[in-house]
Amino acid sequence: MELLNQINDVLWGYLIIGALIGCGLWFTWRTRFVQFRMIGEMLRLLTDSSVKPQGSEKHISSFQAFAVSLASRVGTGNLAGVATAIAVGGPGAVFWMWVMALVGSATAFVESTLGQLFKQYHKDSFIGGPAYYIQRGLHCRWMAILFAILITVSFGLANNSVQTNTICGAMEGAFGWNPLVTGVVLMVMTLIIVFGGIQRIAHVSSILVPVMAVGYFILAVVVIVMNIQLLPHVLSVIVKSAFGVEQAVGGTLGAAIMNGVKRGLFSNEAGEGSAPNAAATASVSHPVKQGLIQALGVFTDTLVVCSCTAFIILISGLYTSPELNGIMLTQAALESEVGSWGPVFVAVAIFLFAYSSMIGNYYYGEANVRFMTSSRKAMTVYRLASGGVMVLFGAWTTLEVVWSMIDLCMALLTACNLIAIALLGKYVFRLLDDYRQQKRQGIKEPTFRRTQLPEIAQDIACWE
Q1: CA distances from 308 to 36, 167, 222, 243, 334 (A)
Q2: 288 contacts 432 by C-beta, under 8 angstroms
Q3: Which tens digit of pLDDT belongs to each residue from 71-106?
Q4: Which residue, 25, 189, 284, 285, is most buried by CB atoms nearer than 10 A?
Q5: How distant is the alpha carbon of residue 95 from its chain centre?
Q6: C-alpha distance across the termini of the chain, in Å
Q7: 361 vs 356: CA distance, rounded Å
Q8: Quick one: which of 316, 303, 262, 308 has its CA closest to 84?
């Protein structure tokens, strides 16, 4: 375990953080600050209905694809991950999570637009993601296979253990339930959903995600209003801890940055290459549409939901307690503010958050298993491993083990995806220019055809 932690420190401390920030700033500049200038268009596109199902296609709407990706984003990272970042890196970690969201949303736009551009037809829907745009856009099969393996291990397997571990910890803290019993129940529920395909996953996510996000947001607003006099102090503590001389001298400034970036990435997944798998399933008239929607997902996840958890914890003042970490810290903080029913609410919230993440994570793995093989047996083995074995493993193992696993997987996965989108970003810039030009011409619903990119038209499977 010590060796694994050392490897993670090297990868995150010297490579991934710089690459994430560098790519985010570059994409922000080249897209002319798309994540800020087109927020109104992002909100409008959530209800986009310009593309109707054709033939036997079972239509996945823009909102459903958004919900699948948000189901994966909004999970334990928002409750347990934020608490862990604050406990290890201090309040300043929250600031760096915000920075990653503001900068990373441009990266999310680029990768999800590429997911749409290089998507493929699959039975009665679409399928795509980084493995697909690496192979078709870069013509690099080995790199595409590497990414497919990494995301399957990271999301379909390791990530589901994190979600399960957090659910079991919350249920044990609130109700005293045995973690293994909770794990068995989760396994059965997850297997029922994952054997139903992307349509069932999209349907469940489109119901769970709005309910859980709105409910948690309302509770956080109530807590903040009850302690409104402490809000200036909380904001001051966050900023001072992010840049303070005391933190730099004490060596905690680096911890704040590293934990803020790591937990920010685990939460909003911008640049990691996961959301494009969901973005590719949507049926839209222009690839940029889904890119804009996924950029909005980063804002929703980190600036709204993660901030809710951070404010609750910092208002309580319990983040200085060394014995509290992860979901236990969030539960204790909420209990101190709203009473004994606080841990129960968090337990229910974390169940909805993490369970929706589990089914979203599963689909990311499925899309990439299908990329590697068409074998039904392989798919069945993956479903049993993702929805069964790894769920039980998460219920049995410790918090430290699952977080160390996911940190390593995220680092390798992110490095692979950032290389690809840095090389393919030029196509996204042209698509965005085309989209903006059509909007300036008064076209309400811009459209795209693959002949508009003649040099790679033969590599684009859809968009006839």
Answers
A1: 21, 19, 10, 22, 11
A2: yes
A3: 656 666 666 667 777 877 788 888 888 888 888 899
A4: 284
A5: 18
A6: 51
A7: 9
A8: 262
